[in-house]
Amino acid sequence: MTTKTTKPDTYAIAWRLPLIVWQGLFFVGPLLFMVAMSFFLVKNYRMEVALQFSNWQRMLSKDFFWDAYFFTLWLALLATIITSLVAFPASYFLAFKASERLRRWAIFFLIIPFFTSYLVRIFAWQVILAQSGVINAGLSYLGLGPWQMLNTQFGTMVGYLVLCLPLAVILQTFSLANIDKRLVEAAHNLGCGRLRTVFTVVVPLAKTGLIVAAVFCFILSFGDFVSPYYLGGSKPPTLSIMIVDTSKSGQQWPRAAVVAIMMIVTLLVVAFTAIGFAYRKRGK
Amino acid sequence: MAEPLVVFDNVVKRFGTFEAVKRMNFEIREGEFLAFMGPSGCGKTTTLRMLAGLEQPTEGDIRLAGKSLLDVKPHERDTPMVWQSLALFPFLNARENVEFGLKMRGMDKPARRRKALDWLERLGIGEFAERDVNSLSGGQRQRVALARALVTEPKILLLDEPLSALDAHLVIRMQGVLTKLQRELGITFVYVTHSQSEAFAMADRVVIMSKGEIAQIGSARDIYRTPASRFVAEFVGRNNIFAGTVNAAGNVETPAGTFTLDGKARPGDKVSFVVAADVVSLSVTKPAAPNVFTAQLISEEFVGSMVTLFFEAPGDTEVKVQVQERSLEGIPREPGQTLFLSFDPSHAHILKG
Known about the structure:
The complex is a heterodimer of chains A (284) and B (353). With 284 residues, chain A is an all-alpha fold. Chain A has one domain (62-279): MetI-like (MetI-like fold), CATH 1.10.3720. Helices cover 73% and strands 2% of the residues of chain A. In chain A, a hairpin with a 2-residue loop joins β1 (41-43) and β2. The two termini of chain A are 42 Å apart. Chain B is built from eight helices and 20 strands. Chain B has helices at residues 44-52, 94-104, 109-122, 138-150, 168-185, 196-202, 220-225, 230-236, and strands spanning 6-15, 18-28, 33-37, 59-64, 67-68, 81-82, 156-160, 188-193, 205-210, 213-218, 239-246, 252-254, 257-259, 270-276, 281-283, 292-303, 306-313, 317-324, 338-342, 348-351. In chain B, the strands form four sheets. Chain B has a six-stranded mixed β-sheet, with helices on both faces. In chain B, α2 packs across α3 (109-122) and α2 (94-104) packs parallel to α4 (138-150). Chain A binds chain B through residues 180, 182-183, 185-194, 196-197, 201, 204-205, 207, 281-282, 284, and chain B through 52-54, 73-76, 78-81, 83, 85, 87, 89-91, 93, 100-101, 104-105, 131-132, 135, 148-149, 152.
């Protein structure tokens, strides 16, 4: 038998090359460097190439790291749950009750927040939530305030919702709108009341989209620096704040790398588990 | 007969300015197999959906067993439906799909499980009970949908073109399954279809609909032999329609010839009548029979042992003749051949309007 030599498809490679080069230079390269850096040492504020586990040992054995880790995990989880729950009724309305026209306008308005930088929006919220801000001015006038909102977990959570909510509503609306309406009718037809249908039929049918929306919320809020810093007052610190603090104080880049790697691993595990669950087929 | 099971009382349904159903009045008898038939957009599915509560009538009242359904929510009605798309829940397996209605009625787990399995067994798909519905074949999915609708033992079952997605040979088989089920259970089946063969094969009575109105209600035989209007005669398809004027002798003059019909008509009246394709006789020489006319053979079409011959009579009149292939021996059948056609006066049915 003659073996056929396959000619490399230069055309296909040429088109892929820019992406591969870009990703290699600016994503894979730095990522590998960061992993390597986590084994470096810092002496006299200067980094030295080394292969030492001291950074890992130091970070992972300290309570302040694990406190920040679980605090960040908790905040991201809470933001995910709150966002999903707040978004669902709105998405349900847009997908099932609203007219085609209203739905189009609503999606348009949900995209508008992305016109301005997230940072700018958070500064705006600083003004709104401040001790002498708009809300507290109103509350004081009614004799109900002022309330400390800025530099609290509440502030952080407001920021996370600003970040996640529009995206969650868009993703949920699309997945709910794709549901075959006849299945909803079939549920009613078989004696399933309206509210019960939402939980027994609509949610299982939209499962994939709902989970994808939740995963986005988790990823965005878990890694966010802006909200916990500017609205949450960075106390206690989240992991992203810890990275900034560690790298600034004492030039401890290797230790910051350890924190970053821990975050990446956590996000990968959460995302893969959730997506796996979202696309899981029933056993045959 | 006692109070009919379902009464449509002056029911009108409008979608915006479009009148999908125009003032419908009819009854569905207990235990009958009623088929709604008509071209798409005639309002047959809307009628069925109003019965299930998936659409609200704009005007009028629908009564089930003597009670008005107007204020009864869809999920409070006991009018299960089988969808054209089947609408099986993809996240449940076959048994869980069948159990759904029982679960909603609060039946406990072991009881509803047993009942669901009984029904799947009864429909011959017991072995697939734990299978994912998407892994089943069209015919099997069909049976799951039927079991899901029937498991709650309703008085009435609604079917919305349930066989239209199946292969031809499966359709025949499922027709057998449906008629057998209906007889055994003795419940009312309301069946919507655009297929004449499905409706005529299964239904006790057929409702022919056109543009939101009932064109005719009757047995398949009634509709075929004595169509109420030109629309019905044309829709049924296997009829020849002649139109003409009554002459002084009381006969009807048409472009195809002059015909003697049973029944009275005044000279000068315009008359349309139908002659079924299977009552027209053929011969090479002029027969000694009434109502003879000549026509030119255009083409022929075989369906099993039956053959349908398409003729053109004078005045562009299309004539269909349906006969057993065997009975055509000795009759030349080249296209362009002119033959003598005839029918008995008693076989002509005069159309009203």
